[in-house]
Fold:
Amino acid sequence: MAFHPRIGFDTPRAEINMIPLIDVMLVLLIIFIIAAPLLTHAVKIDLPVADSAVVNMKPETIQLGIEADGRFLWNGESVEESELDALMREAASREPLPELHLQVDAATPYEFVARTMARASRAGLEKIGFVSRPEGQMQVQ
Structure:
């Protein structure tokens, strides 16, 4: 009776042993479950109770449009460049500080936009954002 080796048992297998990986993941899960409450840095104090309404002041938004030819639009109204500094200083004195939304024509040079942003920053307007048209939306003439 001759013993013949079975075909396929001598070839190496390309399988990953998942058991050690699962063990490591379970240990990490337990560590995070135990450590999570320790990461909260809350100070428990007994706060006084007051009967008042919640003050939810939302900052005003100022729309500043810059045309390609250098004209400015302050909330839709045309203003001269000389008036712009006074309007920005007056807006910066309001509480809460308003947000300045720049609507810039695509053909406006970047240098002009950068100078306008620097002017707004010097006046005290810190929250400056750009308004753009979503891609694919038709341009309104």
Observations:
- The two ends are 96 Å apart (CA to CA).
- The CA atoms of residues 20 and 67 lie 65 Å apart.
- The beta strands are 61-66, 72-74, 77-79, 99-104, 128-130.
- The mean pLDDT is 82.
